[in-house]
Amino acid sequence: MSRTVAGATVLVTGAAMGMGRLYAERAVFEGARVLVLWDRDGARLASTVAELGSQSRGRTRIHSYVVDVADLGSIAQAAQKVRTEVGNPDVLINNAGIVRGNSFFWEHDNGEDTRATVQVNTLAPMYITREFLPGMIARPYRAARIVNVASAAGMIAKPRMSVYAASKAGLIGWSDSLRLELEQQDHGNVKVTTVCPSYISTGDGARGSLLAPILTPEHVVERVWRAMLAGKPMLLLPWSVGLSKVLRGVLPLRAWDAIAGRVFGVYSSMDRFTGR
Q: What's residue 101's pLDDT?
């Protein structure tokens, strides 16, 4: 892919606010031909579309769909509309996600917490990608990109994040396996980028640590965008996430627990989490 998404069709999930909206703004700024926005909040989505439309000044056609990505049927229906009304996307950013934290595992509700978290964070990216990947593969002459926004929590265990960590660990395993499958089958036009950031400043009360400092949404989106265009397989943010992964792999478990908990404060980072 070139240095921008100019002329491409870009689809962003969870696009009405937060980082999803930042990805959408970046696509408009770079002159994407078509921008497709998915979100379950229809009112916020309409507001975002209106503001992006004024920024675009007609250069980018914007299509929005109210989609609950926790619902397989909703995904399938919206995907069919996109293929019919817009065409297959060149860039898919699986950004939508939910966080259920500051609870011990046995305090989670199986439906509202556990099932919903896995449906949105793990299964939805799989379902959505499955809808559009065949179209990407069918055009070997056209560069395509898939971004799966996971989390460092999927690589390093943290107390009070068991369900969330599991959902992101599953996403990481699937996303990087998909990358390898595409490479082995010579579908080199489709590149998959798995993103694993530490905490992002969203006002939810999460507390950064030495190995997992708080990142700004703008910084994360900038780095993800560059990695996506370059087709980078995995992006760990910040660099200390990679160091944590190495230390966790080489140290005895109890030694890692002592360092992560007492020295770096990783194990207490969710103590004040309130959510949004």
A: 66
Residues recognised as catalytic: 164
> Mean per-residue pLDDT for 177-198?
97
Is 170 part of any domain?
A: yes
Q: Would the pLDDT of 205 be above 50?
A: no
Mean of pLDDT over the chain: 91
Separation of alpha carbons 8 and 144, rounded Å: 9
Record the tokens describing residue 109, joined without a space. Answer: 């509700």
Task: Return the exposure string of 123-160: e unless at least 16 CB atoms fall within 10 Å of the residue's CB, then b.
Answer: bbbbbbbebbbebbeeeeeebbbbbbbbbbbbbbbbbb
pTM summary value = 0.92
Judge whether 274 lies within some domain: no
b/e per residue, 208-237, with b = 16+ CB within 10 A?
Answer: bbebbeebebeebbebbbebbbebbebbbb
pLDDT of residue 151: 94
In a domain, 60, yes or no: yes
Looking up residue 96, the CATH number of its domain turns out to be 3.40.50.720
pLDDT at 261 over 70: yes
Q: Can you tell me the distance from the alpha carbon of 79 to that of 74, in angstroms, rounded to the nearest whole number?
A: 8
The amino acid at residue 228 is M
Distance from C-alpha of 191 to C-alpha of 143, rounded to nearest angstrom: 8
Q: Are 10 and 93 in contact (CB under 8 A)?
A: yes
The DSSP code sequence of 95-144 is: -------SS-GGGS-IIIIIIHHHIIIIIHHHHHHHHHHHHHHT-TTS-E
